[in-house]
Amino acid sequence: MIIAENSMPLKKHIWALIILNVLDGMLTFFGLTFGLINEGNPLLQSFSPVTILVIKLLLSLCLFGLLFTPFVFVQSGKWRYFLISTITLYSIILLLHVIWISFLVFF
């Protein structure tokens, strides 16, 4: 039985968070490995770049697991707006990573 995409309103938002988290992990790893950035998260500052990347990938795997739970079927507008807000904030943080690394590498 194929489930219509409309019945899973949060699926696209969860996928967006997974992609943003993986990209953030890769950029953080790249930036820390080459000494271009410092980790700003006090909870992650004491970890190596590889450990931070693994943590980010495990968190993405947890988010991926949400795709197979009843959560994706939630029709609540509150959850949708929360996820959209989270995606927006994460996108801004990711954009800052790209800008910082670009300036440090090319200028």
UniProtKB/TrEMBL annotation:
Query: Where's the DUF5658 domain?
Result: 15-102
Q: Which UniProt keywords apply?
A: Membrane, Transmembrane, Transmembrane helix
Q: Which residues cross the membrane?
A: 14-37, 49-74, 81-106
Q: Does the keyword Transmembrane helix apply?
A: yes
Xref: InterPro entries: DUF5658
Keyword Lipid metabolism annotated: no
Q: What is this protein called?
A: DUF5658 domain-containing protein
Q: Which organism is it from?
A: Planomicrobium soli
